[in-house]
Write a structure and sequence with these properties.
Elements (H helix, E strand, L loop, with lengths): L2 H4 L11 H19 L9 E5 L7 E3 L15 E3 L15 H13 L5 E5 L2 H7 L10 H7 L2 E4 L11 H8 L4 E4 L3 E6 L2 H23 L9 H5 L1 H8 L5 H16 L6
Parallel strand pairs: 5-6
Antiparallel strand pairs: 1-2, 1-4, 2-3, 4-7, 6-7
Length: about 260
């Protein structure tokens, strides 16, 4: 299907529950925002969100659409085995299925899984020391960060247990030589976590390029980062705090994601 035809996909709003439609709209918004911030890699990364009330079923991008073309109705619903649960004409990226199905199955709280191949993220993932405590943003990432060694393109089921173990109960995962991954209880939470993660990597790349001695954040500050985050967001969580503003920005740029 051509991109032009893809953008004329009939609305599914009347075919799904209000809860599923809400998740579809948020997930489509996340795809458009990833493109807006320049974290996309043509069609080769993925964001998924669990379908409310449908077990391990989740929504993921139609393989072949650019992120700034994705709409709520074009998202593909699949089960834990990768079978399509709707009549979408689009395939699903097999590597995306491997990574996302493993995490959704293992983490009930991981309602959204966001994975990117951003240039700064991949650059830091190739650095032996990984994320360094160089910025205020870094303390929130370092307080909940795991690492997963590169095993090639993620197509093998036997990688799933190692991927899940390396993530553990954390919200940030650096895929060595590959990219960044975040999870959240909502699309908003996963997106904000990725915004922090990518910011941390961008700051680190620039700081290391400065060829000057660097000051590291005291480890004791990192240990208390989660409590500080709750205080800063008044207990709301960062995702709900910033998501409405991000949607307003997207409405000004291109409201087509809602279709």
């Amino acid at each position: 299907m051509s991109a032009a035809a893809a953008l004329r996909i009939p609305s599914r709003e009347k075919e799904v529950s209000p809860d599923e439609w809400r998740v579809r709209v948020d997930l489509a918004a996340a795809y458009r925002l990833v493109a807006h911030f320049g974290w996309d890699d043509l069609v080769f990364t993925h964001i998924s969100a669990r379908v409310p009330g449908q077990g391990h079923a989740f929504l993921i991008n139609p393989y072949g659409l650019m992120f700034d073309e994705i709409t709520a109705s074009s998202l593909v619903k699949i089960d834990a085995d990768g079978n399509k649960l709707d009549d979408s004409p689009f395939p699903v990226n097999p590597a995306g299925f491997t990574i996302h199905s493993a995490i959704h199955a293992a983490r009930e709280d991981a309602q959204c899984v966001l994975h990117v191949h951003s240039l700064n993220g991949v650059a830091v993932s190739a650095q032996k020391e990984g994320v360094l405590p160089l910025s205020q943003q870094s303390i929130f990432v370092l307080s909940s960060l795991g690492y997963h060694d590169y095993e090639g393109v993620a197509l093998r089921d036997d990688e799933k247990p190692r991927l899940v173990a390396d993530l553990g109960s954390r919200n940030f995962l650096m895929l060595r030589n590959h990219g960044l991954l975040t999870v959240g209880e909502t699309v908003a939470d996963a997106f904000l976590s990725m915004y922090l993660f990518e910011s941390v990597c961008t700051i680190q790349v620039r700081a290391l390029a400065g060829s000057r001695e660097l000051t590291h954040v005291d480890p004791r500050i990192i240990a208390g980062a989660q409590a500080k985050a709750k205080a800063v967001t008044r207990g709301q969580g960062g995702g709900p705090l910033v998501w409405p503003g991000l949607l307003r920005r997207l409405e000004r740029l291109d409201p087509g994601y809602r279709s």
